[in-house]
Amino acid sequence: DTAVSQTPKYLVTQMGNDKSIKCEQNLGHDTMYWYKQDSKKFLKIMFSYNNKELIINETVPNRFSPKSPDKAHLNLHINSLELGDSAVYFCASSPAGYGLTFFGQGTRLTVV
Amino acid sequence: AQTVTQSQPEMSVQEAETVTLSCTYDTSESDYYLFWYKQPPSRQMILVIRQEAYKQQNATENRFSVNFQKAAKSFSLKISDSQLGDAAMYFCAYIGNEKLTFGTGTRLTIIP
How far away is chain A from the Cα of B46, in angstroms, using its nearest Cα? Predict the structure, then answer.
């Protein structure tokens, strides 16, 4: 039983396309996140949701739109993909007050 | 803003020896958590160890221990009896206001 699962694991697509990455957690956590890991392995938060409400929205192009239909799911939709969007995207979740953050296995997005 | 600094981009250690990875951070908060995450080539983010800032005692998990110096804002990771499976990227991370901030990582190589 995977705690935080995201699909797909790999995604190769052409510039200009629109794509989505899905994330689900079965830990009962209230908070979910999207992180981006660039080619230099640097990890940076993109979005944070708490109980379906957007809490953190870092400086991210508005081509990126997160959607949380319920507190167990946080999807990431990306419009008009660009070469610079190529990265590994991690979904994560955490319970309130404990500091622990659990990560999904990552989605490697390659834009060609 | 919180920042996390890992000054060692790469480290190597002989198998069975001990290695220490450095991490410093900057924050004005008094209550926070610090973490070390391991990222092997599989890219999964694996929690290695966690330290709560209000606890003076250094956290330990089997062969992994930390040296937490709150006044100096230093949080180093010691790996004892290094094993081949310890080879990975290691990320130091901080969470205070529910946003996990990562250092730039240290790539650890184990020499057989």
Answer: 8
